[in-house]
């Protein structure tokens, strides 16, 4: 079976690695020129990290990530509202850690050393004829395969051809992302500051912290502030002196940071004929619950599982089973991420205060209901 994967992100690379383990070599096309710009952080829950066991990469993950042990929510003045022990939910299921996206891609690439990977080339479209797919590439050439997997992200060209233009679910917020090294903060603590019109998250990675500073786009987005980091620092200063060290690490030139427009999208169907969607191309996630990478790894594992029990003649049935196993679960995680976003991203001072009072009584299971329930469920 010849397989082409559009996109060499977490989902695409994981699928290629899983296929290779079974002796199937896929061909990858990635629009980026290299992996140099894959430098923001992400978290992996046990539901995603366990896929690395099957690739014999779990020890490498332990070595390149930082364990997440506590989760603390503070108000808009830096005062603690509630602190949670993550082990209460995760113990018994596996390891949860923070890692740089580039580090995770490097790990996955170790299992794809002989897999053809074409940087600087994207899949722009396709045509299905019988049981074959003619793939159109950005360099003007074409390729043929039995299966095309669209793992080309939230703005997927594959999804657009399958389903047309789908509206993004917009929060109206975006975030600046940067890394702080050599911090003296507790290395395993996740800390979030929920202010009015401001959100600041501190996430452990090996040797430092990943920082997310979110705010309404119209106020502090790239078009509003240009490249002026000083304006962003001033905007977040009201969160208190406790964040002075991480805000000082924000570059004055915002061109050195990563801007993330906080939106997502949901495909109505994940497959058609001999074409399937994977990762953000199928169901993109807001970062509020931190599940995007875990979901991509899970989906890659399920797709590989279904492909391992069929051949090219029966691909449509295998892809239908893949969608049945994955779409409801991914949609429920996306719903959780959206609900968390509505709690975190509040502009009104009064509503923010009311939210803070309610948070004093929230359990971890209430905050992350779908994650808690999913840990023991089969996929």
How would you characterize the overall build of this protein?
The chain has 15 helices and 19 strands. The mean pLDDT is 94. Helix content is 36%, strand content 27%. It has a single domain, classed as FAD/NAD(P)-binding domain. α1 runs parallel beside α11, α2 packs across α11 and α11 runs antiparallel to α12. The chain is α/β, with parallel strands linked by helices. Strands 6-5-14-15-16-13-17 form a 7-stranded mixed β-sheet. Strands 8-2-1-12-19-18 form a 6-stranded mixed β-sheet, with helices on both faces. It is globular and about 60 Å long. β14 and β15 form a beta hairpin.
Q: Which SSEs are present, and which pair or pack?
A:
Layout: E1 3-6, H1 10-21, E2 27-30, E3 41-44, H2 46-54, H3 58-64, E4 66-67, E5 70-74, E6 80-85, H4 87-90, E7 97-100, H5 101-110, E8 117-119, E9 123-129, E10 132-137, E11 142-145, E12 147-150, H6 157-163, E13 169-181, E14 189-195, E15 198-205, E16 208-216, H7 217-220, H8 222-225, H9 229-236, H10 244-248, E17 258-264, E18 271-272, E19 275-277, H11 292-307, H12 315-344, H13 349-359, H14 364-367, H15 369-374
Parallel strand pairs: 1-2, 1-12, 2-8, 5-14, 12-19
Antiparallel strand pairs: 3-7, 4-7, 5-6, 9-10, 10-11, 13-16, 13-17, 14-15, 15-16, 18-19
Helix pairs in contact: 1-5, 1-11, 2-11, 11-12
Features:
seven-stranded mixed β-sheet, alpha/beta, 379 residues, single chain, 15 helices, FAD/NAD(P)-binding domain, six-stranded mixed β-sheet
């Amino acid at each position: 079976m010849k397989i082409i994967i559009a996109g060499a992100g977490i989902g695409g690379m994981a699928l290629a690695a899983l296929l290779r383990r079974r002796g199937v070599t896929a061909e990858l096309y990635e629009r980026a020129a290299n992996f140099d710009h894959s430098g923001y952080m992400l978290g992996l829950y046990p539901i995603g990290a366990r896929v690395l066991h099957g690739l014999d990469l779990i020890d490498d993950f332990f070595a390149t990530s930082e364990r997440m042990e506590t989760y603390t929510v503070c108000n808009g003045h830096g005062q603690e509202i509630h602190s949670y022990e993550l082990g209460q939910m995760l113990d018994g299921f596996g390891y949860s850690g923070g890692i740089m996206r580039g580090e995770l891609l490097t790990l996955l690439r170790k299992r794809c050393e002989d897999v053809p990977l074409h940087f600087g080339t994207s899949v722009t479209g396709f045509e299905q004829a019988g049981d074959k797919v003619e793939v159109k590439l950005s360099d003007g050439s074409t390729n043929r395969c039995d299966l095309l997997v669209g793992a080309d992200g939230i703005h997927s060209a594959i999804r657009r051809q399958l389903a047309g233009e789908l509206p993004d679910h917009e929060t109206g917020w975006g975030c600046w992302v940067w890394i702080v090294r050599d911090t003296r903060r507790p290395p395993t603590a996740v800390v979030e500051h929920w202010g009015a019109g401001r959100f600041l998250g501190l996430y452990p990675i090996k040797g430092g912290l990943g920082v997310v500073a979110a705010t309404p786009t119209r106020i502090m987005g790239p078009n509003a502030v240009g490249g002026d980091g000083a304006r962003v620092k001033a905007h977040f200063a009201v969160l208190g002196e406790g964040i002075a060290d991480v805000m000082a690490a924000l570059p004055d030139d915002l061109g050195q940071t990563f801007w993330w427009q906080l939106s997502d999208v949901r495909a109505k169907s994940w497959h058609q004929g001999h074409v399937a969607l994977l990762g953000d191309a199928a169901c993109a996630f807001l970062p509020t619950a931190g599940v995007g990478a875990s979901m991509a790894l899970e989906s890659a594992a399920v797709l590989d599982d279904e492909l391992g029990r069929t051949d090219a003649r029966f691909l449509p049935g295998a892809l239908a089973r893949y969608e049945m196993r994955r779409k409801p679960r991914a949609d429920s995680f996306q719903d959780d991420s959206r609900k968390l976003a509505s709690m975190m991203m509040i502009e009104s001072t009064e509503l923010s205060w009311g939210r803070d009072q309610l948070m004093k009584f929230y359990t971890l299971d209430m905050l992350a209901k779908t994650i808690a329930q999913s840990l023991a469920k089969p996929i």
